[in-house]
Specification:
The protein is mainly α and 87 residues long. Helices cover 84% and strands 0% of the residues. It has three helices and no strands. The longest helix has 27 residues.
């Protein structure tokens, strides 16, 4: 369990940094972090950091397709934790 929480923490820090870098690149018209990469980080446990990054950097919150995938990833994690708790 401690290892899983550690992975969530590390992935969340990576996600937060990725959101910040992507927002900065967007403002400067430079190379962006691909959305697929952001979603992969979220899927690997970084969704808490991604959610914080969305709020702090005001980034990706208005892209409906992106947010649908994001919330599906959150739901997948929630379902996994629920299954674990019930077993």
């Amino acid at each position: 369990m401690v290892y899983v929480l550690f992975i969530y923490a590390v992935a969340s820090v990576v996600a937060f940094i990725a959101y910040g870098l992507d927002k900065r690149a967007a403002l400067r018209g430079r190379w962006r972090v691909p959305e697929a990469s952001l979603h992969l980080i979220e899927l690997l446990g970084g969704f808490p950091g991604a959610l914080l990054g969305q709020q702090v950097f005001r980034h990706k919150r208005r892209k409906a397709r992106y947010m649908i995938i994001f919330w599906l990833i959150v739901a997948l994690h929630a379902a996994g934790w629920l299954l674990w708790a019930l077993s």
